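Archive entry. Fields below.
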Amino acid sequence: MTIETRKEKDMDIHIEKGQKITGSEAVIFSLLEEGVDTVFGYPGGAIMPVYDVLYGYQDKLKHILTRHEQGAIHAAQGYARVSGKVGVCIATSGPGATNLMTGLADAMIDSTPLVAITGQVGSSLLGTDAFQECDVVGMSMPVTKWNIQIKDAEEIPEAIAKAFYIARTGRPGPVLIDITKDAQFGELGFTYEKCHKIRSYLPSSQIDPKKVSEAAELINNAKKPFVVFGQGVILSGAEKELKQFLEKAGIPAGATLLGLSALPSDHPLHMGMLGMHGNYAPNVKTNDCDVLIAIGMRFDDRVTGNTKTYASQAKIIHLEVDPSEINKNIHADIPVLGDAKKSLKMLIEQVNANSHDEWVNEFHDCYKKEFNRVIEKDIHPTKEGLTMGEAVRLTSEATDHKAILVTDVGQQQMIASRYFQFTQSRSCVTSGGLGTMGFGLPAAIGAKLGAPDRTVVLFAGDGGFQMTIQELGTIAQNNIPVKMIVLNNHFLGMVRQWQELFFESRYSFTEIQSPDFITVANAYGIKGKSITKREDLSSAINEMLGTDGPFLLEVKVEKEDNVFPMVPSGGTVSEILLGPEDL
Amino acid sequence: MKEEFIISAYTENTIGLLNRITVIFTRRHVNIESLTVSESALKGISKFTIVVRTERALVEKIVQQIEKLVEVLKAFYHTNDEMIYQEIALYKVSTETLTSSNTIEQLVRKHGARILEITKDYTVIEKTGHEKETQDLFEGLNLLGVGVLQFIRSGRIAITRSPIEKLSEFLKVRDAILSKQDD
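PREDICTED_STRUCTURE:
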């Protein structure tokens, strides 16, 4: 290990209750009271008072300086995703704050608990178009669960307590606190009380036992039940309950992209990934089942395709914590509102022990079909050019399927999600809802710091990697041992694929020129290697994993490979295509 | 099929919450026909009354997304028939034309309006009612050739026809639920 393993530190700050401190001290002390030990950020004028206090508490609060505020917030996301803790990032006013917007939108749509603290100009300058002033609160409203602007130092502790409570309870999400410079300098008597309730906010509903009974009865009488599970299982900590439920009732299950790793990949009832580029069986069987049990997933359009033809033959049970998700996209015959861990526990007691061997075998038959037409070529290719799939397979094997997978966005994201194997939860960090290119590299930084004892492997494309390539500087300065693989096909692959399939191969601005990535890595003082031949792949991966410290492996892959299977946009999930010839 | 709906919400009285709520309508491309916000019977709690014209399925989703907001206590919707509602309109007309004929006076009497203020130059008439009624008076005044010098319509306020649990009761029940919940 080359990063310092943090020892248990005495978190008590010895200040008297009510002792006079400044607003910026209150910020730092409040973060410490919330158990924060790592923050990601970038200083600037309007947040300098906070940074000044931070300077004296570096042994208690580790701050990672990124190279762009977007890097800071994506890192905070990666940190939160693997650890389950609230990710924290700090930025200055104006452009610092606006650079957080993408990350906030990403965290909002992927339900990641984050607290973002931004500096703001002095309160007397608000609304005057002052230097580096902008309406952060106004801009971030649609992309945060809650936000607030603080002009008075006395309000800081309560605001931070509220922020953490809102960020991590119910359906998690990002929260932003905008603190004016005078509030940071202002004085207050410090007391801290964690927030335990807000009268206008109900994190999760009380579970209706009648609904659970109805659901259990439906499941017990089902001939072809199918479970679709998503990130809600992970957020609720319900991995064990999911496994118990599936095993007791003998029900096959499919995972959404964000649900991956909630169930070990090799579990006999894990039938694969759902969605546009998911596995054949889960997609086809969705329109064959008689009871669809949705757990902690939101029927995203990538999963449903055309909602009119999605599971229309099935009765749908929806275990969900957010009431506004019930019947938002797909009608639920039996909605079970509440926390998944609790509702699954209740459901397990009422479902009968059962098995559906013949039904499960139908999934296996589908898998064989997919294997012959798609998978074999992806992960055991015989042609000369390297495929993304084989790089993913070999890396997964080389890490014993114990690594955390972080991906960027695009073809490599889909291939990695399909072929990387997971043995434990919180092992897949990817930008699902927003699909933010450039997410991967900074998220991998955060993931490594959030799970320092685990290997973190990043798969990125040549396009996405360049979007946040400056974060190599963060890796270098802090010696963060992320293992990075750039799958370089010299194209913006996913867009090129669509142009090939739907726009008569008019490759409008998808051909992208990249630098020599290894030279760039070396310039940052990071080791790397570039390979083009199959015989070098295995040893290169081992070299990457065996090297102490960060490593960049560039794998030059086939330029115009396509990701299949594919449900065309707005298509019917059971009509998923196994190849372009099926179009 | 588009219908008119009245969306009501009880919220905390926080700065910026109005923005958060209206953004939900913008996102769904739904226009707000009228909007009233004022303090409810309980101090510190605001009441929003929002009128929209849209499909029922969409209104249901919008209301759930409003209720999801941290500072919103509860939100619900009704059709016009399910509520008793009023709007106020003010009409400024020239006093000369008012006093030169008695037709305006009869019109005002017929519509159950009242005179708020009379000066040498202008008179302000006030009418409370539904949109159609205030509109009828407006058109009536214009038809007389006199013309309304200035006109304004307020947002709608509404009360449900059905007995509904009191806000104070709701808060007590909510507090009990939250106290039982472990983080």
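CURATOR_NOTE: The longest strand of chain A covers residues 114-120.
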